[in-house]
């Protein structure tokens, strides 16, 4: 046996793309700026359970079966700052669809109201119902709003119905910023990727796990006022391999710095509210596609039921009690703006207050804390074509600045 002295607290993580459910990684490995990295490998061991008439006989050796395992880690939630964000690179593999709007500059807005913005169709043709748009202009900062309808207007323009209402109506000086929108995927079978988990000092005394045919779920853990917002990831793999002494290929990442939860705005319908924290869980379950032909007893993973959950702690407000007793449905929006190229947000078209708690926030201030159920978002319309199209709106949208 080769004994290596490997520091347990020196770890690294990279991921690679796959084109199919297999043990083959395509393309280069990309560094992930992660913390709390932990991989628990597993092998299904099958006891032979052979019975014998002698009391002094022990069992036979188990038979090695299917591989598997779970990887968990955390990343900071942040925008792309002129590049594709780390969240975008990872989330596209895990039960979500991504639409990208590259943005345009030069005053492309022709008019706006509190709930709409009009621009040349050629400039905003890539924006559809359920996408998030980001507009920036000097002195106003970036504003994120989601699109509930697209309407053709006279000439070559189109109007976007946006929600919630603009804090400051965009003017002709506004620029459209590049933005990725992630929505729940309607495809049962997700994409796959690989991960490498490193332990060691970066030299030859390194242990490396390589995980293949991975899928994952994620959630925005409690984003506390003044602290860094963190995404918690949980990855399952079909197969893993290990290498006892391989020099790490983990390279320095180039992602933007994270914006603490400072100056972040939470909207309930069209009203900004003060909250102590905010968390969101898409609630996507991952189901093994069990199959006898699979090398490890699986032929893929399926995306199961989605039960998204949102929670936050507001300060005392009797309106929450009124909403609860009335069975009211509200719209929830969160926007975190670092600068015009670095932002992210979460948008939930419909949620219902199903419970209320009165409690101390921990700072001797009373909170009226609602429990919210995320509801079906119903439909929007797109009338740019000759025949109006009814579009199913997503249950939630995650917006991240991109390129």
Descriptive notes:
By secondary structure, this protein is mostly beta strands. The chain has 2 domains: 11-99 and 183-401, no CATH class; 103-177. It has 3 helices and 28 strands. The strands form 3 sheets. The protein has an 18-stranded antiparallel beta sheet that branches. Strands 6, 7, 8, 9, 10, 11, 26 and 27 form an 8-stranded mixed beta sheet that branches.
SSE blueprint and pairings:
Elements lengths: L10 E7 L8 E7 L1 E13 L16 E14 L9 H6 L4 E6 L7 E5 L2 E5 H4 L7 E6 L3 E12 L4 E7 L11 E2 L2 E6 L8 E8 L5 E19 L5 E7 L2 E5 L21 E4 L2 E3 L1 E7 L2 E7 L7 E9 L2 E6 L3 H9 L2 E11 L2 E19 L5 E9 L4 E4 L6 E4 L4 E5 L2
Parallel strand pairs: 9-26
Antiparallel strand pairs: 1-2, 1-13, 3-4, 4-15, 5-12, 6-7, 7-10, 8-9, 8-11, 9-10, 12-28, 13-14, 14-15, 14-16, 14-19, 17-18, 17-23, 19-22, 20-21, 22-25, 23-24, 24-25, 24-28, 26-27
Outline:
The protein has 403 residues and is mainly beta.
